Each structure stands twice: as structure tokens, then as C-alpha cells.
Amino acid sequence: MKSVVTVETRSVSAQRGKVHVARRHRKRGEDLLVFMHGFGCAKESFDGAFTAGALAEYSLLTFDFPEHGESGSLPERADIEGAAEVVTSLLSEFDRRHLYLVCHSMGGAIGVVAARKLPDLAGFISVEGNLVADDCGLVSRGVAQQSANDFKERGFSEFVQWLERSPERSHREWVKWYRRCDPRGLHGLAKSLVDWCDHRDLAGILGTLGPSAYVHGSHSDVAHLKEILGDSMYQVDGAGHFPMIDEPDAFYRLIGERLDSFATNGWMANA
Q1: How far apart are the C-alpha atoms of 103 and 35, rounded to whole Å?
Q2: Which of 5, 8, 64, 213 would bridge with 69, disulfide CB 3.0–4.6 Å?
Q3: What is the pLDDT of residues 11-20, one digit of tens each?
């Protein structure tokens, strides 16, 4: 199937201003599949989507959130609401028949907030996305508990060093993306993310979005979500918090299966 892949940086609206957003887009099918990365990561988290056979019929979009990768900073302050506004502004530029979101970690929270303003959303997949307070234990709560200055001066570099020493392959990828982030922006996003997970009902909002699924690695402790999410949870064997890095073939195959299920049981059932 013929397709065109473009990599570019465009200015989009956010917080009564503009922010430059780096993105990679493949124009192919009529349905648009959007991947959103996690805290301290980058659009390259999902490079494997562009060669995955299970996703061959979809148009694809990946991008760097503000404060990450090659994107700029939010005009006023770095928070989940501002990042979600970037998502809706960015997606307004793309024609599609149906829209699907696949959102990892912090991107899961941003995706849930943004999805409330995406009426054509046909399916949502959270990949270990932040939903409740217990989901902030890996990194974000530790960042949020530091002052902005302490994190910029010490905390940011200390976590880079920790990632560099880690034996995990996903952490070796993560550190390459993390180094490119803006420390003050990361700190603002971490504080906002913890606030949303501690005090807002992200899981309840997710339940109102229509067809959805929660994907996790078999090595991750997600027992606290089973009562909330029930049968909508799907496991990638042999993977941790980054299933798209640890087990990419199985991960993208599972994503394709869930998308097929959405099409069969979601919008097609209501057509």
C-alpha cells in the first residue's frame, strides 16, 4: 500500500499562545491512529508502529509532547491541561474517518483529558497509562516532591545517571529521550500529573470514552487496577513498563487485535 511519511515541526495553539510540536505522520488509510509517549520519552518510543504489519492499513501520527524531544515549551506553564490542549489543536489538522489513540504512561492521562474534546474518537488504548495515585510511583511523584530548582540542579541529572546504570534495555532507550527534555517543563508536568491522579477521576473519564483497553507488561504490578478495569486489561508477556520496546512484535500485534475489536464491537455495531 502506497504511503507518504513526513517528519516536521509545526506551530499549534496552546494556552493563548503557540508551541512548536515535532511530529511524524504517515498518510495511508482513512483511519488515523495516534500514539502518545510517556513522561521523559519521545515520539521515537513508537517508531516500531511504522513497520508493524498489524497496523499497515492505518494512517499514523507520533509527536513529541511540549517540554520533550524536539518540541518547544508551553507558553504559560507545563501541565496536563496544556498538553491536552496541544493534542486537540494538533489533531484538528488531520482529516480522518475514525480516530484511535494509543497512549503510554503520562500520555495515558493526557490522552484521557484530551479525549473529552474528540467526539470522533472510535477507540482508546492505555498502555500502562496513569489513572490513579498508585500509578505515579515509578518517577513522577518523586519528581513532583522536589522543588523546581532542586530538580533542575540535581534531580534531573541524578535520574539520568540512574537510567544509564540500569541493565534494562528499555531504560537505555529512555535515557536517550530523557536527556532531551526541559527539566523545568518536566517538573511542571510531574506536579500536574500527580495532582490529576491523586484528585481527579481519570479512570471514570476513561469509562465514558467508549471502546477502550488497558495494555500492560507481565512484569508490571497492575493488580490495583483489576477491580477498576476488569476484563479490559490485556497483557504482553515478557514485558515491563515499556512493552513497545521490550516485546515490540507482540505489542503491536495486540494493538492491531484491539483495534479490530473496536471496529467490530464499537462504531460498526452502531452504524
Answers
A1: 6
A2: 64
A3: 999 999 999 9
Going by C-alpha positions, the residue among 62, 8, 73 that lies closest to residue 38 is 62
Contact (Cβ atoms closer than 8 angstroms) between residue 189 and residue 78: yes
Rg, the chain, Cα only: 17
Cα dist. 252→51, 71, 151, 246, 271 in Å? 10, 26, 35, 11, 27
27-47 pLDDT, tens digit per residue, is: 999 999 999 999 999 999 999
Question: Lowest-pLDDT range, 132-141, 152-161, 165-174, 250-259?
Answer: 132-141
Q: Does domain 4-265 have CATH number 3.30.1360.10?
A: no
- The three cell numbers of residue 197 are 491522579
Domain ranges of the chain: 4-265
Q: What is the pLDDT of residue 154?
A: 97
Q: Rounded to 5 degrees, what are φ and ψ at 2?
A: -75, 140
Q: Which residues have CB under 8 Å from 91's CB, separation 6+?
A: 32, 34, 61, 99, 118
CB atoms within 10 A of CB 88: 17
Neighbours of 137 (CB within 10 A): 10
> Which triple of cell numbers denotes residue 217?
507488561
Residue 229 is predicted with a pLDDT of 95
Report whether pLDDT(270) > 60: no
